[in-house]
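Encode chain A's predicted structure.
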Amino acid sequence: MRRFLDKLYLVSGGLAAVFTVGVLIAVTMSIVTRQLGVHIGGLDAYAGYSMAAAGFLALAHTFKSSEHIRVSLVLAALPDKGRMRLDIFALLVGCLITATLCWFSIKLAMDSYTYNDVSTGNDATPLWIPQIAMAVGTVIFFIAVVDETIRRIKGIPEAGHGEEARYE
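Encoded structure for chain A:
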C-alpha cells in the first residue's frame, strides 16, 4: 500500500508538471499568434485551466515532500509529547478541511456536468472537464493528509524534516 500511495503522489506531481508546461505552451502560443495577427480563441482560458490543474494536482506531492509552508515556531517550543499531540491535532483539522474541499470540488464538477455549464469565453468548454483536475487533485490531497495523519498517529516522523519531526 505504501508503494502505491507514494506512486500516486508522484504521478499527481508529474501531471502537475505536465499542466505547468501546458500553461507555458498556451501563453507562448497566445503571444506568438497575437504578433502574427492570428487569433486562436480560448488560449487564455486553456492557460487558466492548466494553471488550476497544475495547482490542485501538485497539492499532494508538495504536501508529502514537506514543501508546504509550515509555521513550526510553536511546535519547536513544545516538549516531544506536546509537539506530537499538536501536530496530530493539526493534521486532523487538515483532514476535515481537505474532506470539505474534496466534497465541494467533486460536487462542483458534477453540478457543471448536470447543468451543462460551459465557459463564457470563445472556447465554450464544458466546465466539468477542467474541474475534473481540481476534483482529482483534492481527492489525492485528502488521501495524502489522511495518510500522513495515520503515519503520525503510529509515531512515524514526517519525511523530509529529519530530527525536528521525531517524537520519542
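Residues 2-36 form the longest helix (35 residues).
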